[in-house]
């Protein structure tokens, strides 16, 4: 099996929807890990909370909130993902939210594939902080 840390493709050459495919998994795992570390709860309850954080409407809002903190390159990756034309349509949420969520996932995928774990963690921490502020109001 090929060592996944060795890259034969430059991340700038990967399609935004492929970056979003990776980023979806990265983001989902970050949320799951965060929830489990926060409190040991029944799986059904964890999944219910996870769905509230991993959906196009929430992700679109998080993207909007972290946008001022993005570098030019990160913003470019986000916009490439947001402007990509996915083959499917959202089940729950608006098309605009779905596109913004795809942009956020593309960004997380890009950073992950570039090995920028600290930046992934930093952006995710911003999201969790914003979420906790939103819940306290």
Describe it for me?
The protein is mainly alpha-helical and 137 residues long. The protein is 70% helix and 0% strand. Helix 1 crosses helix 2 and helix 1 crosses helix 5.
Highlighted features:
Ribonuclease iii, N-terminal Endonuclease Domain, Chain A, 6 helices, mainly alpha, 137 residues, 70% helix
Layout of helices and strands:
Elements: H1 16-38, H2 43-53, H3 56-66, H4 72-83, H5 95-113, H6 117-136
Helix pairs in contact: 1-2, 1-4, 1-5, 3-5, 3-6, 4-5
Outline the low-pLDDT stretches.
none
Q: Look at the structure and give the CATH class.
A: Mainly Alpha
* Tally of alpha and pi helices: 6
| CATH T-level fold name | Ribonuclease iii, N-terminal Endonuclease Domain, Chain A
- Helix/strand class: mainly alpha
What is the terminal-to-terminal distance? 49 Å
Strand count, sense and barrel status of the largest sheet are: none
What is the helix/strand order? Answer: HHHHHH
* Share of β-strand residues: under 5%
| Counted beta strands | 0
CATH architecture: Orthogonal Bundle
Within CATH, the superfamily carries the name Ribonuclease III domain
State the helical fraction.
over 70%
What best-fitting shape do the alpha-carbon axes yield?
globular
Instruction: Write down the overall mean pLDDT.
Output: 88
């Amino acid at each position: 099996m090929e060592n996944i840390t060795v890259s034969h493709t430059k991340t700038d050459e990967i399609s935004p929807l492929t970056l979003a495919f990776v980023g979806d998994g990265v983001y989902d795992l970050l949320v799951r890990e965060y929830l489990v570390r926060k409190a040991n709860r029944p799986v059904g309850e964890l999944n219910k909370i996870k769905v509230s954080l991993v959906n196009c409407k929430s992700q679109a809002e998080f993207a909007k909130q972290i946008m001022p903190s993005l570098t030019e390159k990160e913003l470019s990756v986000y916009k490439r993902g947001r402007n990509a034309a996915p083959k499917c349509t959202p089940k729950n949420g608006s098309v605009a939210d779905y596109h913004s969520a795809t942009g956020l996932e593309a960004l997380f995928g890009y950073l992950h594939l570039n090995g920028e774990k600290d930046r992934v963690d930093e952006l995710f921490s911003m999201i969790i902080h914003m979420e906790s502020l939103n819940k306290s109001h």
